[in-house]
């Protein structure tokens, strides 16, 4: 009898910059994640309201339609999403932005430009993907 392969952890990446979105998708897939991409706040908003919770969310702060703060608040209001780790990934480096995001429910905050290995190390604090 063949044993079923464990499913990959799912990373929801909410990023409107094409280059960064492709880089994150590549990095995360190599690290053992299945990646769902949302290119703007509206797509992410619809995903959060209609899809099962992913393993982790990487969330830009500045997005069209709904910003990252609105989305992290939405994530925390969905019962099945409340324990999902949310990592903000943004160019906004002011302390007030970081504090607002953490207070809204983000688990971590990484400032762009980011170091890929640091991002993956921070992800490992929340998720242990299977090889």
Give the topology.
Layout: E1 10-14, H1 18-30, E2 34-38, H2 41-50, E3 56-59, H3 68-77, E4 86-90, H4 95-104, E5 108-111, H5 116-124
Parallel strand pairs: 1-2, 1-3, 3-4, 4-5
Helix pairs in contact: 2-3
Overview of this structure, please?
This is Response regulator transcription factor. Keywords: DNA-binding, Phosphoprotein, Transcription, Transcription regulation, Two-component regulatory system. It comes from Ramlibacter pallidus. The structure is a single chain. This protein is an alpha/beta fold. It has one domain: Rossmann fold (3-Layer(aba) Sandwich). The chain has five helices and five strands, in the order βαβαβαβαβα. The protein has helices at residues 18-30, 41-50, 68-77, 95-104, 116-124; strands at 10-14, 34-38, 56-59, 86-90, 108-111. Strands 2-1-3-4-5 form a five-stranded parallel beta sheet, sandwiched between helices. β1 (10-14), α1 and β2 (34-38) form a beta-alpha-beta unit.
Provide a quick synopsis of the model.
The chain is 40% helix and 18% strand. It is an alpha/beta fold and 131 residues long. The model has no long low-confidence stretch (mean pLDDT 92).
How many E-type strands? 5
Biggest sheet strand order reads 2-1-3-4-5
Query: From N to C, what is the helix and strand string?
Result: EHEHEHEHEH
Overall mean pLDDT: 92
Tell me the number of helical segments per DSSP (H or I, 4 or more residues long): 5
What is the molecular shape?
A: globular
Modified residues (4-aspartylphosphate): 60
Keywords: DNA-binding, Phosphoprotein, Transcription, Transcription regulation, Two-component regulatory system
Pfam families: Response_reg (PF00072)
Domain Response regulatory: 10-127
């Amino acid at each position: 009898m063949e044993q079923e392969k464990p499913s990959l952890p799912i990373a929801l990446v909410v990023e409107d910059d094409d280059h960064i979105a492709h880089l994150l998708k590549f990095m995360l897939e190599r690290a053992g994640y299945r990646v769902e991409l949302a290119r703007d706040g509206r797509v992410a908003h619809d995903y959060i309201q209609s899809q099962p919770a992913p393993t982790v969310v990487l969330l830009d702060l500045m997005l069209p339609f709904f910003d990252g703060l609105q989305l992290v608040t939405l994530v925390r209001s969905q019962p099945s999403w409340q324990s999902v780790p949310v990592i903000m990934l943004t160019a906004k480096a002011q302390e007030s932005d970081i504090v607002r995001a953490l207070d809204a429910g983000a688990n971590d905050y990484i400032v762009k430009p980011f170091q890929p290995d640091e991002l993956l190390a921070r992800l490992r604090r929340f998720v242990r993907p299977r090889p």
